[in-house]
Amino acid sequence: MANLIRLDKAVSQVTDLSRSDVKRAAWAGRITVNGEVVTSSSTKIQANDVLCLDDEPLHEPGPRYIMLNKPLGYVSATKDGEHPTVLDLIDEPNKSKLHIAGRLDIDTTGLVLLTDDGQWSHKVTSPNHHCDKTYYALLADRIVEDAVAKFAKGIWLNNEKKRTKPAKLEVLFANEVRITIGEGRYHQVKRMFAALGNQVLELHRERIGDIFLDEELQEGEYRPLTPEEIASVQ
Prior knowledge:
Structural Genomics Hypothetical 15.5 Kd Protein In mrcA-pckA Intergenic Region, Chain A, 15 strands, 4-stranded antiparallel sheet, Pseudouridine synthase
């Protein structure tokens, strides 16, 4: 015998509607099952039944892969009691199932990846998969002359027991740099420059692995990743 599921549960799993919302939608005649209007949200349906809401077919979303250009002031979290989150910028059904593959601080901008594919997310964030990340940084002071060599060797961070992994530092101007790191310690980029007696004023992530922030995305905008971008994470 096929497994049965309540209509309100089935609809709420693939939309942003609560079960109470589904109940009201059913009463209003907005939900059909296999072409027939169903007004009771407690009706049991089968997994292969065709569900529609307002004549639009409903189906389980995913897996989804999203690129977001994060602005200042947003936290990389699904919920926060004090600040807006990156999910507040996403207008997608069931967005609560998305999680962040590579977080950014509230005062850091740029590339954020969101997905509901847990294995893919792990590959982005795990050091074992060597998904390097590149940032642009504006510094308070001129970069010291031996900074490139120090970053290439690894930096001793305050209260850490070992150096950072070798990082690539490209000096763009006196106090503007591009830095590529292969790990993700807490506030790592800021702490690396602090170890050299400097301060990061602005930080912007440009790249994760082979995925570059789309220059056409304005701050707060997002788009699906291309198949090539998704496949680049191995």
